[in-house]
Structure formats: C-alpha cells, structure tokens
C-alpha cells in the first residue's frame, strides 16, 4: 500500500533496527482517513472469503479491526488482555509474551461471540514476532471457526512472525513489509503479486 | 439515542445495580454500524465547536473515538495506560483509579499531539465514577488545548461522574443515561433538551 509506505517514510521514527514508532498516525494519534483506507484494503484482499467477524487484540488493533469491519460490513471482536470482573463467563484464551513490554499476559474472548458458524479475519497493527497473532489463531482454532487469514498493517519481515503463521498454513497479508531498517533508512519488500500468493494458500 | 437505548434493553446484561455488560455490541464484540451512528451523533452534538482532535483512553474508548473522528473528519488520540518503551518522549499524564478493575494506573499522551492550537472532544464508552474522564480533562488542561466537551455512550447517572465534570464547567453529553437499574429492569433519563442545556455550558 504505497500511501502507507510513503507515510512511514515521512513520519515513522526508526529508533533501532527493530523498533519503529508510527504513533503520529497509526497507534497513538490515529489518522482516521488513512485507517479507513487500510480497512478497505483488507476488505479488497480478503473480501471474497465470506468473513463473518473480524478479530483483533486490544488496544492498538482496535482501530484497524473497526475499519476492516466497516469495509466488510461485519462486527469485530477485540480480545482482552486480562480478565475483567465483567467478563465472567466462559472464555477462549491463549498465553502471549510481549517483547515490546517484556511481559507475559493472557488474551481471552467470550465463547459467546465465536463459533463453528464463523469465518474470521484476524487483523493487527504490527506483525513482528507474531506472538499475539499466534495466540489469536489458537483462539480461532479452539472456537471451531474458520480462519480466513491474517491482515497486518506493518510487517517487520526480518522477524519470525510471518514464518510462524505460514508454517500453520495461514494466509498472511501485510500492507507494508519492511525488509530492513536502521535510523534514517528503511527498505520495503514489493507487495505486488503477494495477494495472489496469499489467495493460493 | 433511542436505537442505543433499545439495544441496551435487548442485549445489555444487568449484573447488579451498578454493573451493566454491553459486550455483545459495544465493548468486546462491536457492532460497527451502530458505532458509526454513535460517532455521527457525537458530531451532531459537538460539530459546531471547531474540534481539531478527539481524545479517549485505551482500550474500550477507541472505537467510539474512531467513529467520532470519522464523522468530524479529524484524527483521534488514545491515551495509553502505561508507558511503553516506544513512548519515550515527554508526555502529559494523570493518575486514574479504576473501580471496575480495582487498580490505580497512569494515563498519558505524547506532548507532540496536543497543544494550545487544538480544540478537543473527549469521548468514552461509560461515564460512571468519571475517574478516567477527569484524568483526560486534566491532560487537556495541561496541554493548553480548548476542551469542547465530553461525549459518553452510556452514562450511569446515579454515579458521581457527571457531577464531577459539571463542577468544572465541562459540557457533558451522553447518548443513553441510566437513572437506575437492577437485574431485569432499567430506567433511562429522557435526553431531550439536554443538548441545548449542554450547549449553554
């Protein structure tokens, strides 16, 4: 998605070879028009798969799940990171290790909102180590729902996340794929043809 | 907002006189069409105030801030609940006590994204004790931005939140105001005329 790559070049702050800040337009301050366009792109890629629900994890996936849900005309669900007192019923859950925050947590969703009749698109802001996304895929498998694929806004292709998902046979589509980066320099992988590749999974 | 009140009557689970679950359509599984309509309603109420940014707090305010941002044509910002390693620069912050989770936390936003040139609409899913909203108002005051008002999806009018905000002279508009509730029973306050009252603040 060229407009996204350009925005990352203009506003992204590369703090190290692994840390990219995009909080001026994606995950702290959020450009609503760009986010809606991101949702449309996900719908263009996965829209022929009869998706019934979009799934993400709080907090920074929510705006993209919302945008994808708007474009696909379906509800979205966000997994919670810890059990609140109002989430008392049966849940699907999976353990996740956050490398950004250096902590372990559980993600969970109510069993009421996902089941064998659903076809799910998982979306998130970043695909890096894949930890949270693998947890979401485990939750979808546990629920008996079909997994249509995983859509990510930005992929750090030099980290292991894509490999972990592809090993499981999961279609993965990222709108901006970073081959490598260092302060002042960023290289994207050309996405052309990936949609077809993804569709063939 | 009648359609919202009806949905709360149909799907809301009243667990006690203070705890209402709306996680089938608002804050776990999210009805995207209803959420967009909620954003339009906030824009109808506050749209004449030259708002430049919508502000909320992660996680369950994000979809409503997104919807309000879409309707107003402006970006939104979500305050973070703890400092991530990628949020290293100067922040505005405020302490908050969560009665739902029984814990204290800091909310913070980067100083880069709010300043004296901004006019801010704060939105959130619930107005109850008002703790998080007062924290957000403090952050807006600290930034030097103008506060256009606070918009909430559901207000528990029997709790102190509205009073705390009105004491500060802040216009408050909630789309569904609950006068009282108990399992199997819920009473709403008629919202008619409140917009005018709010506009006069």
From TrEMBL, chains A, B:
Localization annotation: Cytoplasm
Domain Phosphoribosyltransferase residues, every copy: 45-157
Catalytic activity annotation: XMP + diphosphate = xanthine + 5-phospho-alpha-D-ribose 1-diphosphate
Keyword Glycosyltransferase: yes
Superkingdom as given in the UniProt entry: Bacteria
InterPro entries linked: PRTase-like, PRTase_dom, Pur/Pyrimidine_PRTase, Xanthine_PRibTrfase
Residues noted as binding 5-phospho-alpha-D-ribose 1-diphosphate in the record, renumbered to the chain: 128-132
Cited SUPFAM superfamilies: PRTase-like
GO MF terms, alphabetically ordered: xanthine phosphoribosyltransferase activity
Entry EC number(s): 2.4.2.22
Keyword Glycosyltransferase attached: yes
Transmembrane stretches, start-end: none
Alphabetical list of Gene3D superfamilies matching this protein: 3.40.50.2020
NCBIfam families for this protein: PRK09219.1, XPRTase
Identification of the protein by name: Xanthine phosphoribosyltransferase
Gene designation: xpt
């Amino acid at each position: 998605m060229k407009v996204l790559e350009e925005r990352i070049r203009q506003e992204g702050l590369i703090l190290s070879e692994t840390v990219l800040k995009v909080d001026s337009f994606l995950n702290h301050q959020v450009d609503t028009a760009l986010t809606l366009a991101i949702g449309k792109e996900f719908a263009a890629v996965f829209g022929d798969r009869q998706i019934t629900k979009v799934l993400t994890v709080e907090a920074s996936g929510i705006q993209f799940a919302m945008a994808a849900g708007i474009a696909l005309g379906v509800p979205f669900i966000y997994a919670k990171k810890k059990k609140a007192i109002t989430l008392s019923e049966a849940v699907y859950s999976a353990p996740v290790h956050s490398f950004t925050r250096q902590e372990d947590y559980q993600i969970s969703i109510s069993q009421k909102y996902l089941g064998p009749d659903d076809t799910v698109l998982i979306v998130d802001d970043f695909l890096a180590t894949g930890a949270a996304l693998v947890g979401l895929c485990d939750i979808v498998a546990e629920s008996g729902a079909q997994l249509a694929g995983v859509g990510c806004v930005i992929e750090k292709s030099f980290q292991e996340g894509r490999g972990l998902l592809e090993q499981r046979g999961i279609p993965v589509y990222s709108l901006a794929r970073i081959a490598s980066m260092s302060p002042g320099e960023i290289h994207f992988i050309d996405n052309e043809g990936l949609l077809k590749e993804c569709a063939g999974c």
